[in-house]
Amino acid sequence: MMEMKTTQIKSNLRSGAVLVGTFVMEFAVPSIATIFKSAGADFIIVDLEHTTFTIETVGHIIRAARGSDLPSIVRVPSIERHFISRALDAGASGLMIPRVESREDVEKIIAWAKYPPEGDRGVAFGIAHTDYGDFRQLDGVKYTKQANAEILIVGQIETVKAVENIDEILSSGGLDSIFIGPYDLSTSMGISGQLDHPRLVECIEKIIAKAKAHNIILGCYVNDFESGKRWLDAGVQLIACGNDAFLITCKFAEESQKFRRHLEVRD
What we know:
alpha/beta, eight-stranded parallel barrel, disordered N terminus
């Protein structure tokens, strides 16, 4: 019997594990998943919101991630059925939904991400998310129940409106995790990019306290360990550090400057 291939990301988070990964935003090649797995990433977030990626590109990266036993979360561009269903049918371990701002948003997400009776996800067996094969051998009842239980649903809190509605969003019961987007949130607050601004810090602390009260897993974007340690110590478990292009840029800049400084000293 075929069963859903599981990467255990949701159960690991539920057990209290801290997972560190990154966004894939620039390198549209399947091997990027294997590269990050080799580098020690616990997951990748394949981004469809801010990239030129097509769903075909995303599908190839997810395929390599599954082959490398690396959980892949897809950030969809918006709350629409076809984005959600296609990412899941491509085999993603989870979904990240930008700009979740209300209970109604959560209800739409769950309806399109979960099979009946929990939602209204369409059925297509024998494709990527079931690892192909003869779907006639698939126990559909067992599979759909397992998929509903294991897919990680992450809602992004990144606007003032979302913070104002945080209680209704968290009490909806549909999200496994909320993910704080500090750049969008700071921009929504009129302090774009000022990640240490007291108003932003206070706002994020409020979100974290609310999530803990509702027993919701916390996630957050950070640029590096130094800036992210505060949120790690505050209870954030799903940490996305940088993105593929950013990490390469920073690492090369760091190493190339060493050569330049050495030449300056030598000369």
